[in-house]
Structure formats: structure tokens, C-alpha cells
Amino acid sequence: MKQTGNDTVITLQGVKKGFGTLEVLKGVDLEVHRGENVVVLGRSGSGKSVLIKIIAGLLRPDAGKVIVLGQEVDELDVRQLRELRLKIGFSFQGSALYDGMSVRANLEFPLVRNQRNLSQQEIDQAVRKVLEDVGLSKTIDQMPSELSGGQKKRIGIARTLILHPEIMLYDEPTAGLDPVTSVEINNLINEVQKQYRTSAVIITHDLTCARETGDRLIMLSEGCFLREGSFEAVFDTDDPKVTGFYNYNFISETNERN
């Protein structure tokens, strides 16, 4: 397990969220420490993506407290929430690149929008540096349509890193990727943690991703956190909710790769 700091960067206390009669989160508590990668595992529809949208302030909880970098998110006005979000990098499942912009323009966009005092030389340096960090320097003048799925994922991560966030939120970072590319993304997540000193919440149902990137794993089931700890500790149980998830996602995945 990687070394982590003692201070807490994300705290959730009794967070509940529902949509109509559907209870998605039923009072979850979470702490993420500085420098830590926390993986939240769960089946599709278990509330994983809702959880990180609440952390980012994109959704409001129905009850409970959300404290990010010492600030209670629900108490922030529009300006304060915008400033907080600049410290949070959100890696969307679909990469969320602008199709009509080159890689260079996609990466310049958040800098120009949020740091208006930068010279063109400083912007160019920042773009080249972050592309080098994700291993895609040669794609700088390509369009998103010319990139593979894995390359798009890397550029999406680069676009969040260019603002040097303190927290990274990854939504299904390996979804739809082949096994080799998934390994590359897992390695990149770990490299980002080390090089940019980020704390992260990684939402996934990919157990290989969870095992390779998580300092701590949390199993989300039916709106509640079921188990928490290392990969081995989480799955050292006879609970059918956990063993069923493991067997479906890991054993079947292993058979497919063999």
C-alpha cells in the first residue's frame, strides 16, 4: 500500500440521495486522506457515479454533509463552488473531449478559461508538459476522431491535470478498453497519484483496476457501504453479495482473457 497523509481531503457524513421513490444512497460515510487512492466498487446502478457527482458538487445530497478540502459543499455560493471545482479533476467515462477541437485546443481550453493571465508561451509549455506526462506528445495536433479509445481517455485525464488538481475523480476509467490499454490506464492513475500528489476516488466495477490502483477499497451495494479495506480483506468473506460480484466480474473476465 502506498504511503498516505493523515489529513482528510474528502468527508461524507450520512449522505443520502434518491430519485423519486428510488433510494440510491442510504446514508453513507466516507473519508479520503491526502495522497490516497480510494476505489468504490459496485454493480451498475449501485450509486457509484452519483457518489462522485455529489463530491464534485454536480448533485446535491438529500441529507448529510459533504466536506471537500475543508469546505462544506452545500454552503458554497456559485463563485466559491467554481473555485473549489478548479481543485478537482473529473475524468468522465466518455473522456468528454470536444470533437471539433484538436488535442492542443482541448488542453488549452481550461487554461485559457480559468487562468487568463497566462502568455501563449506558458500555455504551450503547460500543454506539452501534460501531454508528455500521459505519454502522448505526438498527438498534439490530432483530432479526437483520430485517437483510439485509450488515447482519448489519456487526453481526458491530461485535460484535468493541466490545472494541477488536488483531487481526481475517475468514473469507470477502464470501461470499454481492451486488457492491454486497461493496464496502461491503471499505470497512469498510479503515476498521476505519485507525480501530481493527488488524492483520488476511483469508481469502477473492474476488479483488476481496483486491485492495481486502490490503496483502499469500498464495496457499495444497495445504497450502503458493505465492506472496506484492502482488496484481499474486502473479498475475504462468504457474503453472497460480495462473492457474486467477484465471481461475475473477475473470474469471467479472467476466462475471457485466457
Explain the layout of strands and helices.
Elements: E1 8-19, E2 22-33, E3 37-41, H1 48-55, E4 63-68, E5 71-72, H2 78-85, E6 88-91, H3 103-114, H4 120-133, H5 149-161, E7 167-171, H6 179-195, E8 199-204, H7 207-213, E9 216-221, E10 224-229, H8 231-235, H9 240-257
Parallel strand pairs: 3-8, 3-9, 6-7, 7-8
Antiparallel strand pairs: 1-2, 1-4, 4-5, 9-10
Helix pairs in contact: 3-5, 5-6
The N- and C-terminal alpha carbons lie at a distance of: 28 Å
Helical fraction equals: 25-40%
Strand order of the largest sheet: 6-7-8-3-9-10
Rg over CA atoms, rounded to whole Å, is: 18 Å
Q: Strand count, sense and closure of the main sheet?
A: 6 strands, mixed
Share of residues in strands: 15-25%
CATH class of one domain: Alpha Beta
Beta-strand segment tally: 10
Count of helical stretches: 9
CATH level 3 topology of one domain: Rossmann fold
Instruction: Characterize the overall form.
Output: globular
